[in-house]
Structure formats: structure tokens, C-alpha cells
Amino acid sequence: MAEDTTVSKLDFKYWLDKATEWGQATTLESQKDVCHHLPQLQEFLQQIYETLKHMNSVVAIQQFPLIGQLLGRLCWNPFVIGYDESQKILMWCLCCLYSSQPQNPVELKANSWIQSLLCHLLSSSKWESNEAETNTFISALGYTSADYYSHVVKNMVSSLVTELKGNQFNGLNVQGRVSDSRLSEISLLCVPLITLPDLTPLLEALLLCHGSASQEVLSSEFLEAVNEAFLKKKISLTEAAVFSLWLRHLPSLEKATFDLLDQLVSTHMTSLEEVACVIKDSLLPQAAIHPAIFIIIDEIFKNILLETDGAPEVMTILQVFTQLFVQAHQNENKQHKFPLKAYFSHCHQPLVVALLGRPSATHCSQHLKYISEMLKTLVEGESIRSFADLFEIWFLVAHFGEWLDVAAEQLLKAPADPDALLWLLAFYYSPQNENQQRTQTMVEAREIYSQLMMLFSCTALSVRDLQDVVHKAEIKQSGAQHLTTHLLINFLLFSSGGHMIAQEYISHVTGTREASQEVRGLLLRTAHRVRPSAEGNPRAAALANDLLQKLASRA
């Protein structure tokens, strides 16, 4: 028969009256009365907890408006907190009242009050039955009460961390001295106190601690609260602790990834260095060295690109993320680590190796031709049986989109085989096209390219000249339109005449948000690739940065 955990208003009023009558049990009569009622009180508190744990803090306060008065009074009664499991149950009840995301000043104040009560309970010891004697003892040590409790909390944290080390052994999952139920209990009690600086060592110890069961032993409330505090920069954790959090709690990893994407998409950053700094600070590229984390983040990028039809801002973020991930992997000092190509194990491995390659400037055009020919063989071969197969190849190329920017720049240097580079761009911008459609895209791409090359050496150009080029090409394929934009932006940045009309032309073609985002992404990547500190074109970098500032001022 199930235990009845219903809390009646009559019972609640009875115990609130008792708690008020007892106070801090300073008289002999009140002490005797408290001791007489302790078993029944503990049973009542257990019923309170069983009811509260199924509610959020708002509903709990609505159902029990005076719950704060009751718990607050009991927490300061030394006989109550010294009896059996009452102290622990009081902590559990307080945790249920804690607002993980306070919405107003009242909830913030309530959280602060709960934190102070929990600190008091955690630092209370059972011999403190006489407050006057305790205060005399504290004064003799040279502490104020606040200092004393702070030291006790630090000692408690230190003691628990030492206890938890029995469950850590070189990062492996082994059974230690701490039971799974105790790990769960400790993690739950930490929830309202997560932002206390003194508690950080305990948080990290818990995150690095593994139970004996195959299922997660730490409470989900704890894992979510730690992740939320970390993402809002309310706490600082070691990389190992953060990686362990994301490995053991998928919702936290997903939230961290979506929060990063939201931040980057909603902020108009004017350099790729800013984008890279934000991504690197998130620790996600470093965490992705763990294949399980990489797979989840990669899947999120894939789904977003499908939902947004390859949004330019998401493409840029994916490319920067991949670059930082590759750097983190190269900086990893572990003796046994996965080779980079293993993270793309479902892809054509020779293509993965080629995209990961970094040839010298003199061999760049030849390497691009090699990538293009390999892609063409794959795309037009019999191994592609569905759109999903085609998308996987395109998604792999999208990770290393810098090659497309290099291809567009190489085309302006009149390579021996421009068709190979044009095909690479045509595939990137219209992967879903059938061979016949891609052939038409190539016809339009060749036309626009030849027209631009005839103007490349002209020093005196007008916006009308470029408009005439686009008009003559009669571009109909959407992929060819994006390819044309890519070629035009590079033409403006790298040709002598293009510098003079760049600002006017870009103002002309960025009338919509989609067009503005596309141009902005191209300028960001170009400015980064040819920046003065690299072997590039300082003049083109300066122009790209200037155009980015103009776009930002219009946003």
C-alpha cells in the first residue's frame, strides 16, 4: 500500500504553531516539548518533502504560503536539526523552494535567504545545542560568526572532496567508497549553493566522480544548474570538469551549443577574430576532441543548416568552429588520440585528408583542382543514391569552406584550369542540382567569370559596368547567383578598379537581410584570410574591414 504523503492544512498549522512556540528552545519546558515531538515532526517534514519535490518553487509557495516561516524557524532550532535525519530533510525541502531561474526581486531575495539557511545547516554541528557557549567558543578562536561558518563550510567542502576522490581513478569509471545514493544526495544539496565560490572544488569533484551504476548518479537538477551557472559566467570551472559535465549530460551540451549559436547570430561582429574568440571561450571546440561531443555538436550544425537552407552566418560559424577544433586537436598532447580523419569516419577518407591538407601557396591551385576532381567523381558516381548521401558530402566540404574562398581568389589569378575551380564553387552553392542543372550553372558561371576577367585590369570602373556584366550573363540558377556574388566580392577587393566602387556597389546589392548576411560572411572571411599579419593582401584586408564597418553601421 502506497504511503500517504498528503499534507493537510490542519497539520501544517499545528507544526507552524509549535515551531513558533518553541523558538530556539532556550527554556527547559520548550526543550522537553521539542524532544517529545521530534519523531512525529520528522515524519511530517518527510511528507512535506514528498509533496514539494513534485512542484516548482512558484506552485509550492502558492500551496504553502507560510512554508518559509515554518522551515526558517525549524532550521534555527538546534534540537530539530540535531535529531536523526531532520537536518537532511530540511535541506531537501529548501532545495525544492529554490528558483533555478528567478524572475523577479522577490524570488532573488528568496534564493538568497535559502542559501543563507543552507550554509547555516551545512556548518551546524550536533554539539551546538547551546548558542551562548558556541558563540563564546567562536570568539575565543578569534572569529566572528560569519567568518567561523565560512571556515566550517570550506572545511566541509575539503572533507567531501577528499571523500569523493575514492571514486576517481585516472578518469576511469570505478567503484569507490562513496555510494551512488550519497553522490546523488550531495549533488542535490549543492543546487542552491552552486554560485558560492567556496563550493567550486566540490562541484568539480562531483563532476569528475563516477558511480558504480551505468546510469547517471548525479541529480539532473545539479547538472542543469551547474551548466546554467557556467554559461552565464557565474562560476569558473576547469576544462576537465566542463568536459565531464557535457559528456555525462546531453541537454547541457545541447544548451551550450545553442546558446553559442544564438550569441553569434544575434551579435554583429566586425571581424572573424571576434567570432573565433567567442567560440574558443565557450570551450566547445576543445571539448569536441572527445568524439562523442564532436558528433553531437556536428549534428546540431547539420540540422540548423538544413532548417535554414544553409544560412551564411551559420556557415561562417561552422567554418571557424572547425578551424578551432582542428587547432585544439593538434595542440592535444595525449599519446593516444583519434586521428582527425576519424571524426569524419562516415565520409570519403581521401577527400577528408585533402580538405585537411595545407599546401604551400605555389601548390594551392593544384590542390584545389585535386579536391574538385575528387568531388566531381564522387558526386557523379554511382555511390550517390540519395539526397542524404549528397548532403553528407556537401556538409563535409562546408566544414572547410575556406577552400571555396581560396578558389574564388585563385580564379582572379587566371589559373590554367578555371573550370575545375568554377565547378567546385558551383557544387558548393547548388549541391542538390542534377548534372543537367549543374551544367547550366557552369555555363552561367563561365560567362560571368570571363566578363569579370576582361574588366580586372581596368582602373576606371563604374557600378553600371558590373551591373551590365550580371545582366549579360542572364543568371537564372540560384546557385549561380550566389557564385556570382562570391566572384563579385572578390573582384571588388582584389582588382584596381573594384576598390573605387566597392562601397557603392555593396550598398546596391545588400538591400535585403539575406543578401547583407551573405556579403558580410564573405567580407569577414576574406578580411581574416588576407589580413596584414598573414601572407596576404593588406590593401584588400583594409577595404574588407572598412566595408564591414559600413554594413554594421547600417544594421
From TrEMBL:
One Pfam assignment: Fanconi_C
Protein name per its UniProtKB record: FANCC protein
Entry GO CC: Fanconi anaemia nuclear complex
GO BP: cellular response to oxidative stress; interstrand cross-link repair; nucleotide-excision repair
Highest taxon of the lineage: Eukaryota
Spans through the membrane: none
